Amino acid sequence: MASLRHEFYETDERLTLSIFDKGADPEQVKITFEPRKFSYTNGEKSLVLEPLKGQIDPEKSDFTVGKVKVEVRFAKMAQGRWGSLVGDSPDPLASAPVAAAPASPAPRKPRKNWDGITNEILESEKPVSPDQDPNAGGDAAVNDFFRKLYADADEDTRRAMMKSFQESGGTTLSTNWEEVKKSTVEVKPPEGSEWKKWGV
Q: What is the pLDDT of residues 171-195, one digit of tens each?
């Protein structure tokens, strides 16, 4: 007798078995369900699965014969995943022997100090000062630098900063009034950018 290719998928309540028997005649197919055994016969082709990994309910199990495959649906007696179709596993429905109580209690695991862990994480996430990392603070650090530069500058330096920044559209900032006062400050967009005057 020729064996048949088959595969399955399962949920906790059911297991669906696909038997690839192309063109199977529903009149010729013979299927037998038993609590721990399944058999399929179609002429010379057969498939026997014994012992099934878990117990099935033969009354609630059924099948359909299609053009390409026969789909068999096993109703599991006990919920849970089998992982495979066949195998020697203890029957969960059989009366389980009562386990003896352990002689000594299991040692207690030390408790985690969650406050300590939280404090450690918060310490590691403290903001870094610009003295520790020159790139710390991003735009805020840059803005603080320019505010300080402007506040500490003399009147000519402030005038140069304002004129160069306004005339260049924010692309240049100069502190040299002698150079800036001579002419209009040229627009110098960043590399890869193009300056366009809008609204004119």
A: 888 888 888 888 888 888 888 888 7
